[in-house]
């Protein structure tokens, strides 16, 4: 299975890979993967490629996303993953009622933050999501 890279914003790190299962055209449960790597520039979405391939092989549509590292000014990392999550609405095959966010390490922190966006105060970075609240959030060894 070969992922399809797609931009969700203007930065070179504003990209994600769509892992599409070999299933008929139907709306699919979707998993957003957020990689770890201590928010550092040397780590990217490729850390989650094996997980993405496994999930897609099990019938999930997977959006494995990258984001700017902590060397960028606050709140870049937060607004990046918010924009990546909101990008789900651009895909017809995404079933927005059946989404999950999964992250490892720093990505676990970001996955939990994504799942709490509906509780952010007006004007906070990432507030007012454009997609429904995820049905599930999983943090693997969050920091």
TrEMBL record:
Keywords: Hydrolase. Pfam families: BD-FAE. GO terms for molecular function: hydrolase activity. Residues 19-116 form the BD-FAE-like domain. Gene3D superfamilies: alpha/beta hydrolase. InterPro entries: AB_hydrolase_fold, BD-FAE-like_dom, GDXG_lipolytic_enzyme. This is BD-FAE-like domain-containing protein. It comes from uncultured Frankineae bacterium. The lineage of its organism: Bacteria, Bacillati, Actinomycetota, Actinomycetes, Frankiales.
């Amino acid at each position: 299975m070969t992922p399809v890279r797609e931009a969700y914003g203007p930065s070179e790190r504003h990209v994600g890979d769509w892992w599409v299962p070999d299933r008929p055209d139907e709306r699919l449960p979707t998993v957003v993967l957020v990689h770890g790597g201590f928010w550092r520039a040397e780590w990217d979405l490729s850390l989650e490629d094996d997980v993405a391939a496994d999930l897609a092989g099990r019938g999930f549509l997977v959006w494995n996303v990258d984001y700017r590292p902590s060397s960028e000014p606050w709140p870049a990392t937060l607004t990046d993953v918010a924009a990546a999550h909101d990008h789900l609405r651009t895909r017809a095959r995404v079933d927005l009622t059946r989404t999950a966010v999964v992250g490892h390490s720093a990505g676990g922190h970001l996955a939990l933050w994504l799942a709490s966006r509906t509780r952010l105060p007006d004007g906070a970075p990432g507030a007012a999501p454009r997609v429904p609240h995820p049905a599930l959030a999983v943090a693997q060894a969050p920091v």
